[in-house]
């Protein structure tokens, strides 16, 4: 089936898979957003326990999606993996460290004799929630705003200095934080994750105090999300981008590139608009009709987030666009064509991708089986497994 | 010659990867084995309906959960370090190496992380059989993830199923099944996971022995020991079998590693296997000094194990450096069948390969078809030694013999000791005579650190023994690293070292407390 597809089709297929994984990851970062709110919404220890346990049942899901996102990117676009991870070293390290401390925080937090005390592990969760979202958002923003790197495959023949990809800024990725557009997307992701976290709490926890505080926080976090998100969207739609000549792969600057991408790809425009509407609906419904729709916001905002982020990835990678621009050397910019794996590998991996619906089905089935009732204070005292 | 390569960067990058891998491997083997032991225990519970087996299952599941989290934490770093610290490698072989990592995520990690949640949160929410299925699926998921990462590792030791593409300057996969089913991958997978089963069995036996010494939860302890001793004995016998298979593969594919494992400098026909030996300090390749201060050998056994022929010639470090011998192994490079090349010759061939690649790329840019053809021919002919071009000197093709030799022998001694321990424990627990053997119970407890030592030693053999190669013969560490400041790597090394050490300490403290608490609370984690 996949063998007969052209390399261009397979590259597009894998960019779609990467976009799906990336958009799922942003949605699943409701775990990170929720983590930053455990002291804001949970005022007592039993309340915090409910919040942490609600998130704790999903954290591995986000984590696994992040790992799979990395693995899939490596397999399908290895030049991105080597250029970005090896170059923007400090940004990726700053993203990875908070995920190390998150992985142990849930399990160790409530255990006796845990060396650091339960508050430290709670702060691990808050640090992960803050840095994980802001830095991943800023890193994704560089798909539009660009970075300073060069790629020269002939370097391999230089025995004295064989590195193919080189970062041309000694800050090794941290310089991205000096660009306000990157910071704007980072903060937009941070506040979006908090909004999603709040909606997840409202959906999962049966506790009046938590619900009341969640409702209050919903509006407080939606406003900055909208401001930063709009600022970023307006910025990229009005700025020039790097276009790719479809025949020879030559890369050149094009004014309003991302605006053109949006208008030249109507399905993407539709997805983007629908995504934004769904996110807003997910926030508005619980605020406007709390009694009726208090717990259903996540079912709108979640898919809305996935659609919006998916559309952003499409804007970055499709319509003859360099998805990882280099402002140091334009011709070094990465496109889905010059950075992908071979036809054979993409074909083999495409067969593996057919497992994804099966994976989603068993995840759905398993979670449905154990999420049959909302988390409440009584369940925390039942003696079952808790964090 | 290649003094511009920042060796401190290479060394710190290696140190950082080694540090992460060592820490990761503290937690993974227990996860691999304990998942199955817990699933077996739960199967007994579901079959018999006996609540005590449920309590036993929940107790070990608690310890499994504590260990699992920190294994996950260290695992993510390993995956991303291929990119952050070994970016040239990531491009050079990403077309092959990335696939197993992605498959690991899609096929194994989601399976594991979904059903582990059912294991812990589903006791009163799903049926007994569904819960049992979740426990087995968690174990299968953990072991599947090991399969894919070990396939990737095996490919680095024995690159197969690919072709170098000079236009993209990388190796590209041409046969997925050769990568997946390579004999090195199969032996490596079974040897590694069975070492995890042995680790978990020793862990369960050691902790159960502590309960017996304290005269607490004796029924739980004896039943746990019975399961672990049977599982551990079967796994350790299989471990010896796959160890033999792995060593055979090393003999055939990585003769320098085998020479280091045995401290063999001067090869010979009918080579013996070192049963016990102390390496002579200061011994250097080619100095004609005796490699050992003391040595006891099993005659001809190395030739037999490595070549299935007691009189086969086994090349030593000196032979591999000088070449010229008639190799009996199924070498990666068939051209060397008649006469093995010296390392200097290989360096020269490697330089030819690299120079041909440079010529090819220039010719391609200039559209010089004649030059394209000749340079491509030369590249293909010399490509098997491509990586040798980057070596600083012939000596850098020799791994650390001391570390490889002692790690290998320590691993083997301990492996046989575990077989003995499982046999004795099984016999005594079966005949209900174990409780009175307090000395043995103490030994069982003190065996726990040694099983970790053996397990880590195995990886030291595999990874130190293959140095300087990231990809055998094709890319050494000095050509694989990212172009970053050594200072950055030094800083992250110490950050990782500090963080991992703190988290390991926390894990041990929590684990010990949970063991002391025992199963009385019904199994909350």
- What portion of residues of chain A belong to β-strands? under 5%
- Helix and strand run of chain B: HHHHEEHHHHEEEHEHHHHHEEHH
Helix/sheet category of chain A: mainly alpha
First-residue to last-residue Cα separation of chain A: 46 Å
The biggest sheet of chain A amounts to: 2 strands, antiparallel
The sequence of SSEs of chain A as H and E is HHHHHHHHEEHHEEHHHHHHH
Q: What is the residue-mean pLDDT of chain A, rounded to a whole number?
A: 95
Radius of gyration of chain B: 25 Å
Most extensive interface, chain pair and sizes: A-B, 82 and 101 residues
Poorly predicted runs of chain A are none
Indicate the overall shape of chain A. globular
Residue stretches of chain B low in confidence (pLDDT < 50, at least 5 long) are 521-525
Secondary structure elements and their pairing?
The complex is a heterodimer of chains A (387) and B (525).
Chain A: H1 7-28, H2 30-35, H3 38-41, H4 45-56, H5 59-76, H6 78-87, H7 89-109, H8 118-145, E1 149-151, E2 165-167, H9 180-204, H10 208-238, E3 241-244, E4 251-254, H11 257-264, H12 266-288, H13 290-293, H14 297-317, H15 343-353, H16 356-370, H17 377-380
Helix pairs in contact in A: 1-5, 1-14, 1-15, 5-6, 7-8, 8-9, 9-10, 9-14, 12-14
Chain B: H1 7-48, H2 51-84, H3 87-121, H4 128-157, E1 162-165, E2 170-173, H5 176-180, H6 183-214, H7 218-253, H8 255-262, E3 268-269, E4 273-279, E5 292-298, H9 301-307, E6 313-314, H10 317-322, H11 343-366, H12 369-382, H13 401-430, H14 438-464, E7 469-471, E8 475-476, H15 477-480, H16 486-517
Antiparallel strand pairs in B: 1-2, 3-6, 4-5, 7-8
């Amino acid at each position: 089936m996949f063998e007969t597809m052209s390399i261009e089709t397979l590259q597009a297929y894998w960019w779609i898979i990467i976009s799906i994984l990336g958009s799922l990851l942003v949605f699943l970062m409701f775990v990170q957003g929720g983590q930053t709110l455990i002291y804001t919404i949970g005022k007592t220890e039993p309340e915090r326990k409910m919040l942490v346990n609600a998130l704790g049942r999903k954290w591995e899901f986000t984590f696994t999606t992040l790992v799979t996102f990395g693995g899939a990117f490596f397999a399908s676009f290895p030049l991105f993996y080597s250029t970005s991870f090896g170059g923007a070293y400090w940004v990726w390290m700053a993203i990875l460290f908070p995920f190390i401390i998150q992985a142990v925080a849930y399990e160790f937090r409530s255990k006796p004799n845990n060396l650091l005390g339960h508050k430290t592990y709670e702060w691990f969760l808050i640090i992960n929630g803050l840095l994980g979202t802001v830095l991943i958002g800023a890193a994704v923003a560089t798909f539009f705003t660009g970075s300073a790197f060069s790629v020269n495959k002939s370097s391999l023949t230089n025995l004295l200095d064989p590195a193919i990809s080189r970062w041309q800024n000694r800050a090794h990725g941290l310089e991205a934080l000096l660009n306000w557009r990157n910071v704007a997307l980072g903060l937009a992701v941070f506040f979006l994750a908090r909004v999603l976290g709040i909606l997840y709490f409202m959906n999962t926890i049966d506790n009046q105090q938590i619900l009341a505080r969640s409702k209050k926080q919903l509006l407080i976090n939606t406003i900055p999300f909208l401001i930063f998100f709009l600022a970023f969207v307006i910025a990229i739609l009005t700025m020039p981008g790097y276009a790719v000549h479809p025949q020879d792969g030559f890369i050149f600057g094009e004014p309003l590139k991302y605006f053109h991408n949006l208008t030249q790809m109507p399905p993407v425009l539709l997805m983007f608009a629908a995504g934004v509407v769904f996110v807003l609906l997910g926030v508005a419904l619980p605020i406007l009709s709390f009694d009726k729709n208090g717990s259903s916001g996540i079912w709108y905002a979640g898919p809305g987030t996935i659609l919006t982020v998916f559309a952003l990835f499409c804007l970055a990678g499709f319509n003859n666009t360099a998805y990882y621009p280099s402002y140091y050397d334009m011709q070094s910019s990465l496109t889905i064509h010059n950075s992908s794996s071979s036809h054979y590998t993409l074909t083999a991996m495409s067969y593996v991708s057919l497992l994804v619906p099966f994976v989603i089905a068993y995840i759905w089935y398993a979670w449905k089986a154990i999420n049959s009732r909302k988390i409440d204070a009584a369940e925390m005292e039942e003696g079952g497994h808790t964090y | 010659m290649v003094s511009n390569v920042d060796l401190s960067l290479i060394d710190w990058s290696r140190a950082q990867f080694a540090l992460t891998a060592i820490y990761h491997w503290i937690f993974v083997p227990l996860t691999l084995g304990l998942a199955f032991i817990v699933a077996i225990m739960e199967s007994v519970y579901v079959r018999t309906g006996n609540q005590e087996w449920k309590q036993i299952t929940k107790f070990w599941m608690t310890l499994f959960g504590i260990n699992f989290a920190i294994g996950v934490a260290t695992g993510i770093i390993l995956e991303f370090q291929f990119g952050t610290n070994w970016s040239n490698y990531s491009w050079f072989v990403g077309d092959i190496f990335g696939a197993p990592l992605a498959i690991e995520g899609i096929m194994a990690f989601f399976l594991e992380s979904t059903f582990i949640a059912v294991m812990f949160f589903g006791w009163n929410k799903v049926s007994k059989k569904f819960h049992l299925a979740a426990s087995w699926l968690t174990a299968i998921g953990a072991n599947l993830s090991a399969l894919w990462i070990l396939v990737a590792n095996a490919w680095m030791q024995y690159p197969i199923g690919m072709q170098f593409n000079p236009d993209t300057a990388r190796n590209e996969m041409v046969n997925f099944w050769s990568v997946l089913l390579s004999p090195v991958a199969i032996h490596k997978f079974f040897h590694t996971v069975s070492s995890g089963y042995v680790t978990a069995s020793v862990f369960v036996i050691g902790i159960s022995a502590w309960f017996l010494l304290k005269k607490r939860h004796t029924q739980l302890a004896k039943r746990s020991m019975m399961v672990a001793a049977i599982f551990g004995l079967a796994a350790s016998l299989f471990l010896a079998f796959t160890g033999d298979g792995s060593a055979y593969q090393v003999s055939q594919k990585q003769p320098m590693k085998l020479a280091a494992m045995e401290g063999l400098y001067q090869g010979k026909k009918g080579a013996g296997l070192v049963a016990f030996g102390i390496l002579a300090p200061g011994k250097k390749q080619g100095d004609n000094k005796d490699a050992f201060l003391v040595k006891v050998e099993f005659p001809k056994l190395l030739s037999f194990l490595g070549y299935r022929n007691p009189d086969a010639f086994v090349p030593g470090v000196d032979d591999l450096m000088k070449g010229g011998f008639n190799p009996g192994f199924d070498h990666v490079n068939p051209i060397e069948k008649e006469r093995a090349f010296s390392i200097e010759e290989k360096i020269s061939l490697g330089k030819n390969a690299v120079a041909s690649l440079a010529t090819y790329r220039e010719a391609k840019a200039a559209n010089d078809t004649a030059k394209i053809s000749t340079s491509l021919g030369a590249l293909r002919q010399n490509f098997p030694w491509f990586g040798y071009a980057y070596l600083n000197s012939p000596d850098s093709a020799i791994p650390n013999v001391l570390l490889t030799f002692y790690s290998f022998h320590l691993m083997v001694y301990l492996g046989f000791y575990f077989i003995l321990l499982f046999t004795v424990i099984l016999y005594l627990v079966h005949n209900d005579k174990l409780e009175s053997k307090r000395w043995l119970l103490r030994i069982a407890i003190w065996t726990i650190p040694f099983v970790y030592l053996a397990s880590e030693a195995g990886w030291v053999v595999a990874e130190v023994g293959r140095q300087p190669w990231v990809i055998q013969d094709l890319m050494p560490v000095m050509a694989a690293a990212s172009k970053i400041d050594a200072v950055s790597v030094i800083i992250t090394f110490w950050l990782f070292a500090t963080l991992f050490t703190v988290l390991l300490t926390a894990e041990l403290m929590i684990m010990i407390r949970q063991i002391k608490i025992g199963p009385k609370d019904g199994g909350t984690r």
